[in-house]
Amino acid sequence: MKRLALRISILTLAAVFAVFGTAAADTIKLGVGGAHSGDLASYGLPTVKAAELVVKDINARGGILGKQVELVVEDDVCKPEVATNTATKLVDQGVRVVVGHICSGATKAALSIYKKADVIAISPSATNPELTQSGEYPNFFRTIASDDAQARLEVDFALDVLKLKKIAVLHDKGDYGKGLAEFAKGFLEADPRAEVVLYEGITPGAVDYSAVVQKIKRTGAEAVIFGGYHPEASKIVTQMRKKRMDTIFISDDGVKDDTFIKVAGEYAEGVYATGPKDVSQNPLAIAANKAHQEAYGADPGAFFLNAYAAAQAALNAIEKAGGTDNYAGLIKSLQNDPVDTPLGQIRFDERGDAIGVGFSVYQVKNGVYVEVQ
Amino acid sequence: MDLHYFAELFLGGLTRGSIYALIALGYTMVYGIIELINFAHGEIYMIGAFTGLIVATVFTFAGFPTLAVLVIASVAAVVYSSCYGLTMEKIAYKPLRGAPRLSALISAIGMSLFLQNYVLLAQTSDFLPFPSLVPDLAFWEPYAHIISSQEIVIIGVTALVMVLLNLLIKFTRMGKAMRATSQDREMAMLAGVDVNRVISLTFVIGSATAALGAVLIASHIGQINFYIGFIAGIKAFVAAVLGGIGSVPGAVVGALVLGWTESFFTGYISSDYEDVFAFIFLVVILILKPSGILGRSQAQKV
């Protein structure tokens, strides 16, 4: 009896392998790695759905290179130590292009496996600047702007458009605000055209910021770049204006919020803030959201459109490169062939960041944020 | 040394200190009478700000002049917050008057959390804009960049409230009853002082000053939310301890010292460690003079 069971299981295994073997020959495999369970599943699952929708769409139109596309989904629960296993599993199953991973830490862990196996990864959400800027991972691409993109844009805007020379950099000591302020300070110091005259952290929730405001005034800063959120930003702007200072105020996504305008009122006028490019009018974005609504009966979750764009870019590159095994061809195609996605037309720069994805500068005019052209 | 810059920091510290002082007065009065640290005091301040905002919005909408709106909003906030202070004392502290002091303290913390969450649920978690109720006067415009009319009002009101409270405590019958209650509650009762009334009145006065402060401060800062009472309350509490808790002039002195410390430290060194420095200063003062700057050392009955 035991022997029979063993035989059956061997046969079953063989059958399974046979199925896999034939499938590999007939389909193009697209890997999806990310957090699909655990605390951060809500960040990873929308990517799976986006990939499913893109693949369903393309298969309905006959697939690519005459083959159907097959998704291979593996969970990394957003943990670096699990992500190496996830990556190994995907590579072992013959995946050569992966949409993922989701968390920066897990992505980095997986990338070292992918790099050895010549596997391309396109992340919809890993924003750690190092991933592209270190130059360590030529196989990595992403359809989301990196963490320092806002700081870069703020600094470029201050120097190139506003032609400012003396800038004060403030932050609220939080992860988000301080991180941004540090990037901004780094960019400003690297640029000979401008000078950082003040770099300070303020105490969030303090009853007033008059001392800091006086300090800004004394340094003669032409502009303040502030990393943080709207409650502090509105207090600082209000106090500066009440002290009759017309110092330019440039801030980030945390301030590009209607509450800021509501609270700061007339004092909000003229304030600049960077925020994600508005894609809500993009017909492809509308179509992708609608497809999600029809397929799953709910509005899409986090990074859905980024993931949609990543999957489209991946499949386009596979088609242009003539298959998944042409590693150099895939990279060349990702860098050179523009793809129409819900985020707009994108391709990737030599470091792997998407060109045409990211942030715009907005300014408060008559009580609303207007995109600065 | 840049004298102009020094003066600006001095005035900034004075305003900030006055803000702390308006809240610290309530802390110190309640502590002086029943030796309770009323942690819900910050919440009374916050409720005063919300009441002020609602009333001010209605009356501004009805077309009243700004100054009238300021007065009406302040009065409404004072009345409403006083009712809260009174009720809070009756519900949360009076039943615990004979209990160990720690029980009343826990009750105060509970009250604080309750009021915070009550406003969060009943009103909103968002920041709300608070209108500027003290008008910018035209003749003051050349000096407005140094000190605004709002700041002058805050500093003036703080000074006035402190003087009035001092007079009340020193020269009225009620003040005498308060001092008696603070020295020995049972003896005062035997001597015919209505202790319950004295304690209730103390809560009413404390809440009223907090509410008055709330309207002025919110109008100066320009925004409120349900959490402002906690942060302001902690700082005011520190100020009260610094000055010698239980002493009315002490609370004001402590608040001003705290305001100046923060302002000068931020101005000349760095705002990154503003709080750290303020608290180091508190520790140093308490090491040198454990009862606070103006506090009297009390003989402990052992």
Report on the architecture of this protein.
The complex is a heterodimer of chains A (373) and B (302). The termini of chain A are far apart. Chain A has 373 residues and is of the alpha/beta class. A 7-stranded mixed β-sheet of chain A has the order 7-6-8-9-10-14-15, sandwiched between helices. In chain A, strands 2-1-3-4-5 form a 5-stranded parallel β-sheet, with helices on both faces. The mean pLDDT of chain B is 90. Chains A and B meet through α8, α9 and α10 of A and α1, β1, α8, α9 and α10 of B.
Largest interface: A-B, 30 and 39 residues
Separation, N- and C-terminal Cα atoms of chain B:
52 Å
- End-to-end separation of chain A in angstroms reads 77 Å
Q: Report the sheet-strand fraction of chain A.
A: 15-25%
Indicate the CATH topology of the largest domain in chain A.
Rossmann fold
Mean pLDDT of chain B: 90
Widest sheet, order of strands of chain A: 7-6-8-9-10-14-15
Radius of gyration of chain A (CA) equals 24 Å
**Do you know the CATH topology of chain B?**
ABC transporter involved in vitamin B12 uptake, BtuC
Count of DSSP E strands of chain B? Answer: 2
Number of strands of chain A: 15
Q: Please tell me the CATH architecture of the largest domain in chain A by its name.
A: 3-Layer(aba) Sandwich
The arrangement of helices and strands of chain A along the chain is HEHEHEHEHEHEHEHEHEHEHHHEEEEE
The number of helical runs of chain A is 13
- Which stretches of chain A are low in confidence, meaning pLDDT under 50 for 5 or more residues running? 16-24
Query: Based on the structure, what is the oligomeric state of the protein chains?
Result: heterodimer
Number of domains of chain A: 2
Average pLDDT of chain A: 89
